[in-house]
Amino acid sequence: MKAFSAPGKALIAGGYLVLDKQFASYVVALSSRMHAVVEGAHTAPEESNTVITVKSPQFLEGEWSFVFDHSSETFTVSEVLGRKNPFVEYSILTMLKFINPQFASKIDITIFSDSGYHSQENVTVKKSQSKQFAYHTAKITDVPKTGLGSSAGLVTVLTTALYSFYISSADVTEKQHLESIHKLAQVAHCQAQGKVGSGFDVAAATFGSIVYRRFDPSLINELKSGVNKSEDSQQIQDLVKQDWNIRNDRVALPSGIRLIMGDVKGGSNTPKLVQKVLKWRAEDPESSEIYSDLNTNNMKLVDSLSEITKAEQDDHFSYAESLKQIGNLNTYEILKSTNASIKPFQDLIKATLEIRKNLQIITQRSGAEIEPPQQTQLLDRCNEIKGVLSSVVPGAGGHDAISLLIEANALENLVQAKKEDTIFDKVEWLDLTEQEYGIIIENVDSYKEFL
Ligand SMILES: Nc1ncnc2c1ncn2[C@@H]1O[C@H](COP(=O)(O)OP(=O)(O)O)[C@@H](O)[C@H]1O
Ligand SMILES: C[C@@](O)(CCOP(=O)(O)OP(=O)(O)O)CC(=O)O
Question: Strands 401-407 and 388-392, how do they pair?
Answer without folding.
Answer: antiparallel
